[in-house]
Structures are given as C-alpha cells and as structure tokens.
Amino acid sequence: MRKTTTVIYRVLNDAEELAQASAEAIAAAAERSIASRGMARIAISGGSTPKRTFQLLADAAHPFRGQIDWTRLQIYWADERCVPPDNPNSNFHNAWQNLLSKVPIPDQNICRIEGELPAEEAAARYESSLRNRFRLEGAELPQFDLIMLGLGTNGHTASLFPYSDALDSMMHLAVSAHVDDTVPWRVSLTWPVINHASQVVFQVQDASKAEVLQQVLQGPYQPEVLPSQLIRPQNGELTFLLDRAAASKLPAPGPDGTGMLELTR
Fold first, then answer.
1. Does the pLDDT at position 33 exceed 90?
2. How many helices (H) and strands (E) does the chain have?
C-alpha cells in the first residue's frame, strides 16, 4: 500500500529569520507539551545552523526563554559524534555553550549521548537511557514531542548516511554509524524512532542545499541514496524551515511564505 505524507515548508528571508522560526517551533512545542502532559521531550541536532537558534532561546531579551518552563523540558540528541563532550565537534558542546549552560534546566533533564565512549557502547547506553526515561517495554518506541534535524549536501540527516548499515537498523532505538569524515564514528537515533515523533522539523539553509533538498522532496524515492527520504512521520507533522537560497528549486510558496507537498512512497 502506498503511503502519502504531507510536508509543510516555510520559506524565510535569511538565516536570522530561519533561526527565529526554529526557536519559535521549539518554544511552542515545549509549551504545548508541558501544558498537556506536564513535560516536554525534545531532541536536537548539531551543526552550524542550530547555533543561532540556541542563542535566541537562551537570550533573556527574547520571549522564547521565558515561554519555556525549563524545569519541565527534557533535552535529547538526534545524533552525536564520538568525541568528548568538551570537544568543539561535539553536538552536546554546541548546545551547552550556546543554550544549556545559560538557562535554568536541571542537569537530570539533559540526556546526552556519551560520545567519549566507543560508538557501539555509546549507542547501547543511549538506548538504555531512552528505554528507562520513556518507560518502554518490548518493541515500544519513544515518542518525542519534537525532533529537530538538519540536511546534509549528500542527503543525510542525523547520522544516517547514504548506503550506511545504520539505515537497516529496525530493532534498535540508537545505532553506531561509521562515516567518511574527520570524526569517523557517530551515534544516531534510528529512523523508525524519528518517524514516531509527534513533530519533526528540518532546518535547512544555504544554496548548497537547494539541489539535494529538491531531490529529497520531489525526486524519486531512493532512501539508500538520500536517507532523509526515510523521515516521514507516521502520525506526526513534518515541517521544513528554509531560507530563500535553500528553497530556490522548490515550487514558490504562497504569499505567507508557506508551501505544501505530498510525498508518496
């Protein structure tokens, strides 16, 4: 049976507006989940794009910081490089420097991936933490309120890379991944976990992402080549926040900057 997923994309004028929209998405998801369930569980990513988002969330001059009850927010990671937490390449380090060290979030609400460990051990320990924190049984999957993702120029997201063995992992929550990069080992949430989230938001900026973004959203379905195509939430929302350069090859959005595509596989 063919399945259709609706994707909403918002086109922002520049990187600053993109960061503002991303911070708004995180704050709104946290506020909504805390109001309905008393807590929010959000998984974030690394890279240069989220840095400004984190700074806005931490800035007392912006409304986002006061909008979130930090004592009821739990932070997780979509993926991590296998480096110590104080290494500049660490996704945790990026979030700590720009956000977590500046807001009143309790230490126990931060569930990092222990990148200083060997990749398989770090993945196993992260999976164990997820099972305990979400109180999972058997084959149950954790349901994050929001997962923030990026998009690589090769079509990867989180640490799910083209032709990687990690793409075949269906029985785990977290998996080790070997990539051709300066930091070769990583740990990533698996794509079934990501697809179980209530909301998934991609942040994509720069003209270098325009071609691959168009292929992910409008090209043939070939997830072994473009792993980002695997991200199609079962019952949740899928949103792409884009700057104009990244969105240049997509259909023009409406007057409010919002467009919609139907993805079928």
1. yes
2. 7, 10
